[in-house]
Protein: 1,6-anhydro-N-acetylmuramyl-L-alanine amidase AmpD
Amino acid sequence: MVRSVGINILFVSLLLIGCTTTDNSQTIGHDTLQAIEEQSKVEKKDLMIQSEETRKNNINAVDYLLPLENSKPRLETITHVMVHFISNAARKPEDPYNPDDVYSIFEEYGLSAHYMIGRNGTVFQLVSEDRVAYHAGAGELQDYPDYTNRLNEFSIGIELLAIGTREEMFPAIPVRVYNVIDPTMIGYTDEQYESLNALLNDIFERNPSIVRDRNHVIGHDEYAPGRKADPGSLFEWSKLGL
Structure:
């Protein structure tokens, strides 16, 4: 179930206007109603612009925005991109890559990323780039002492629906559960690499503050070694045009 931004904005507009005219008809006048309608139009236009930004370079990102409480307004300049893997293998090893299930994980734990790339290369936008997503957590980067435990503020997070090696997934996925997973579902697909490259090109074009190299496009395991293993040893960095 992919959520439609346009429908959500329209619903909010109708809800606001409906509640106003029904419950507050004696106290709220025409000017206030008009102001609400104009604000709704502005918000809808802003979200349309956000969606359009990710459609350059043939990036047809599907809007699947997480609740606003899963992110916050961005105040810092973006300088890094972080690559992750994610799946629902611990709960559904036979069907680990259902986007709706993974979306529910973000909601359940209050986490987020800006983008998620499915096995067939579909790019889902979960958080607008002008907001901070909660994907990096605690960690540090050499030469960036001010980023210690704060990389979320300066980065774009990209989750790929993928599973690493048995060792990388343990203890999140017990061995007995990992052994149930279809071996063809381990690692990454060619379609994901293709979409990731296109998405990165688009991100670089819109964010010239990000240097296009491996010092600024990093894995979660490079920021939090020992705590995080993604994107793991099965991820082929050589397939990225960096």
Summary: The helical segments are 5-23, 30-53, 99-109, 166-169, 175-178, 190-206, 220-223. The radius of gyration is 20 Å.
